[in-house]
Amino acid sequence: MTVATADPMTAARGLLRSVFGFDGFRPGQEEIVAAVSAGRDVLAIMPTGGGKSLCYQLPALARPGVTVVVSPLIALMRDQVRALRAAGVEAGALTSANTAEENDAVFAALSAGRLKLLYMAPERIAVAGGLLRRAGVSLLAVDEAHCVSQWGHDFRPDYLRLGELRRALGGVQTAAFTATADAETRAEIVEKLFDGPPETFLRGFDRPNLFLAFAPKTRPREQLLDFVLPRKGRSGVVYAGSRNKTEVLAQALREKGVDALPYHAGLEPATRQANQDRFQQQDDMVMVATVAFGMGVDKPDIRFVAHADLPKSVEAYYQEIGRAGRDGAPAETFTLYGADDIELRRRQIDESAAPEERKWADRRRLEALIALAEAPRCRRVTLLAYFGEDAAPCGACDLCKNPPRLFDATVLAQKALSAAVRTGERFGAGYLIEVLRGEATEKVRARGHDALPTFGVGRDLDAGRWKGVFRQLTALGLLRPDPERFGGLRCGDGARAVLKGERVVEMKEDTRPAKAERRAAPAALVAAEDEALLSRLKAKRRELAEAQGAPAYVVFPDRTLIEMATRKPRTLPDLAALHGVGEKKLAQYGKAFLEVLTGGATTEDHPAQDRLDAVDRALYDALTAAQADLARGPDGTEKYMTLPRATLARIAAARPASLAALEAISGVGPQKAARFGAVFLSLIAAHGADR
């Protein structure tokens, strides 16, 4: 399917500024928008927070017909619809949570041709072919496309039926998006969703605004509180490995004055939904959750993500930390891990019903995450290398900020590896540490291991230090758990070279940071002198959001408020130049925020009014009347189409003399130029003669 346009990107760039308030595309967006706008099938793998939604929203607004967006969770759909409506876009969702009135409104907008984006869950879209055929779908956008993978952790069976729907809609153009998809998952997406190979975009995985940090567990509860408490008042997510742990940690945070709630699949549905709604609405709340709180999180101003337990893979880790800092402002991540976490994750893989080749792949993914946790140098270099990207040390992770002390651990490694070999490579780290420390337990004596040459050669280190040694040996691949021997440690590649003295082993010194370091201040969002102003701007945002029952970020995300506090605009045109300030939001909220910024009331008009005052009012009125007559085409049977007031003002001011010049005006584009162009140009010529 091809969309016939003279220059589809002209309209997209105009909408980018006028609707969304963005001056330019994020890295990787423009090429994808161009491909979708040109009518090509697309598979885009972009980092979480990289702006995937805009890649189908912009083409949807610049073309006739409705774009159907398949999204996996109701909360995600409702949040996106609310944000689009706040920006002046006709969008709706058909979900099981809708009221009859909400469904009627969506159907009416569809019938009138006003609706540009329709969000639906895969479970609902699979039985809605008739409705969608009548609606005139011009684009099928599949969000979280990795849900089609039958072996993925987010598999949704109804995603498998989307290929059938695509064909039922006449092979409608399809664009699929996901944040984390390895080569195997990408192949599954192409096979299940497309009839032929789509144009594939694999964009960089770097999120430079995220601070990355890991720490071995020593006193986990205290370590977690040390991270979260200095960030009180900021929105954050704490991931925990069990339902009970979410409840316990949320209570511990509340006792310390943090507004925190649990979220897990075992909660009553009403409670779970209420907790999620509160998190979405408030800009200072912490959600303590299992991974059940995942894809539905589309809150752009989450300032931190912490893991109380090790995630299950690099992909899971990347997706979960990607919930932070989606607005592009600074955000922080912190992950705790320990030997028990690693053993649990391995056991989950070994005991799963997956085929052996899948288990093998899952073990490699877990090992990659352990290597990231134990990395001796820059986290970002290690993380991006996993995704096949080269990077220089970032200077913005815990290892760059506070480089660990590295030491020659070859002798310790030889002792640990020797203990594994001499005991038959059948035992886990706990037992091997007993042998190394010379602990003549009943089991050690029964096996005769108290007579081994390695018995007691590690008495000089306590059990905690030895745990760190074994943890790092596993991360280096020198020891590998053998699932056929119940997790017993076997020597990996390179172990023999270490035992023979042919390879040097370097390790990090496990140190407990000083108390002052443990409760380090959070990342600064603005300069110290601007913090009070930022607080006042947030208070105004909260007031406006509560008045309309909307999440705070729907008014403006943190990034916009940070720019306000830093750049301190004094006029509406200055405010309009900020990131995220589109025409509708400027008209709706501009004066309220200028009052905070200037310290008093403002009587300044919206720039659109300034434009009207500066143009021929008679021409503007004539254009307004003409577009009303042509809203459904010359014969009154075509799709409903209008131009915003601000766009008409721009046309009246610019007085374009050709169809191409009219089309190039922000907010017009090829479809609207085709509908209104001839009449508008004749009116402009007539009013020019009258002057």
Instruction: State the share of residues found in helices, binned by percent.
Output: 40-55%
- Globular, elongated, flat, extended or rod-shaped: what is the shape? elongated
Biggest sheet, open or closed, and with what strands and sense?
7 strands, parallel
Distance, first to last CA: 46 Å
Q: SS-based structural class?
A: alpha/beta
Please, how many helices? 33
Please write the CATH class name of the largest domain. Answer: Alpha Beta
Low-confidence stretches: 1-5, 605-614
How much strand content do the residues show?
5-15%
Q: Mind telling me the C-alpha Rg?
A: 29 Å
In the CATH classification, which architecture of the largest domain applies? 3-Layer(aba) Sandwich
- Strand tally is 18
Q: In order across it, which strands form the biggest sheet?
A: 3-4-2-5-6-1-7
CATH overall fold name of the largest domain: Rossmann fold
The overall average pLDDT, rounded, is 85
- The CATH superfamily of the largest domain turns out to be P-loop containing nucleotide triphosphate hydrolases
**Count of domains:** 4
